[in-house]
Specification:
Protein name: YtzH-like protein
Number of helices: 5
Number of strands: 0
Organism: Peribacillus glennii
Pfam families: YtzH
Radius of gyration: 12 Å
Strand content: under 5%
Structural class: mainly alpha
Largest sheet: none
Order of helices and strands: HHHHH
InterPro entries: YtzH (IPR025547)
Helix content: over 70%
Distance between the termini: 21 Å
Amino acid sequence: MPLSHENQIFLLKDILQNHQSDCCGSVSECEQVERLVKSLMVNTDVNENVRVILEEIYRYSQDGINSSDLDAHINSHQTDLNHWVDDIGRFY
């Protein structure tokens, strides 16, 4: 059974919160973020304001996948992670 877009949003938010609080993550988490964002971007039920955030998160996940130092990448995006988690929380 596929996840609803709300469940996908909550999963995405959970992964971002983990990156925010743990200051580390894995390439597989970045790949999962990428898949979630792609799925959400084509879903017409997703709030338009969240779509702008999703584009930024997509770039973050791509850069994380290709980073030679993923933990440093995550640390350098702590402010962004804060904003994304807060912004998504306002809409869902």
